[in-house]
Amino acid sequence: WAIHAPYVAAINALKAQRNAVILAHNYMTPQIYHGIADVVGDSLQLAIKATEVEAEVIVQCGVHFMAETSKILNPAKTVLIPDMQAGCSLAESITPAGIAEMRRRYPGAPVVTYVNTTAEVKAASDICCTSSNAAQIVAGLDADTIIMTPDKYLAQNVAREVPQKTIVWWDGACEVHEQYTARDLVEFRDWNPGTRIIAHPECPPDVVAEADFSGSTSGIIDYVTREQPERAMLVTECSMASNISDALPGVEFIGPCNMCPHMKRITLEKVLWSLHSLEGAVEVDPEVAAKARVSVERMIDLSR
Ligand code: 13P
Ligand code: SF4
């Protein structure tokens, strides 16, 4: 912490001067999560929070689609992303042409699009979802066949939770969560009996089936906080365990984890620079933003 302290102090001072708030995803490093964030959360919580921000500037400590979502929901604000290259393998896997192709293949089926997508893809969709509300959104739609894009694994996990619907999906995946295998989990459990295994729903369905619980990043935090198991393995991004371990001294976090290279592009140095220079403002074409806002707001309304 000592080496981070000058950055943390400088960012917090500049944040007040610029009338800025920092919205940080649960995958940020502990120095961002605990040192400078005003709000931490999963994708849905951050999107809802973005609608409520009154400060002039939002600094999005997360990946590009999250900053875009904040801009779509609160267009009058300056939304800064400390590194424009902070992408996401899911967002890169589909374009509006992909949505059109799915609509051609499954005429009349509504398109539920994960928030991990560009504004253009959200604009071409009927409604968005996040990992915390996907099953609820799909179950609530008045259609038997539903197109889910772009995460095939989230779609397959939702299909198991909502068997009354026929779900078809796009062939995208998260490069972090697709690396886990069910075999890893079985072997890990054999060597570490009694460990509570908790997986994000972007993992393949056989991985989720081996886990004791699956949920969004905040769902995972709530579960571990509530259950306080002696040992837990978080089958998700590495910063999750680091961020919550101090508050849960009775829980030993064990096991391998995978790092998201896009999330890890966001550093204290880059946050300080973006607040200083106001560089890295995210812009969304107003027509695209208006259509994308409909998809995101529908999701927020349906998840209340
Ligand atoms: P959550 O909505 O669960 O925070 O997930 C976002 C994400 O990118 C996970 O990889
Ligand atoms: Fe995208 Fe996966 Fe990184 Fe989340 S963890 S931002 S889904 S690549």
UniProtKB/TrEMBL annotation:
GO-annotated molecular function: 4 iron, 4 sulfur cluster binding; metal ion binding; quinolinate synthetase A activity
GO biological process, one term: 'de novo' NAD+ biosynthetic process from L-aspartate
Record EC number: 2.5.1.72
Enzyme class (EC, first level): transferase
Pathway(s) this gene product operates in, as recorded in its UniProt entry: Cofactor biosynthesis; NAD(+) biosynthesis; quinolinate from iminoaspartate: step 1/1
Details of cofactor binding: Binds 1 [4Fe-4S] cluster per subunit.
Cofactor entry: [4Fe-4S] cluster
GO CC terms, sorted: cytosol
Membrane-crossing segments per the record: none
Localization, UniProt: Cytoplasm
Pfam family, one: NadA
Gene3D superfamilies according to UniProt: NadA-like
Binding-site residues, iminosuccinate: H25, S43, Y114, V115, N116, S131, H200, P201, E202, T217
Keyword annotations from UniProtKB, A to Z: 4Fe-4S, Cytoplasm, Iron, Iron-sulfur, Metal-binding, Pyridine nucleotide biosynthesis, Transferase
Residues engaged in binding [4Fe-4S] cluster: C88, C174, C260
UniProt catalytic activity: iminosuccinate + dihydroxyacetone phosphate = quinolinate + phosphate + 2 H2O + H(+)
PANTHER family per the UniProt record, alphabetical: QUINOLINATE SYNTHASE, CHLOROPLASTIC, QUINOLINATE SYNTHETASE A
Recorded family membership: Belongs to the quinolinate synthase family. Type 2 subfamily.
Record's function text: Catalyzes the condensation of iminoaspartate with dihydroxyacetone phosphate to form quinolinate.
The protein, known as: Quinolinate synthase
Organism: Pseudooceanicola albus
Gene this protein is translated from: nadA
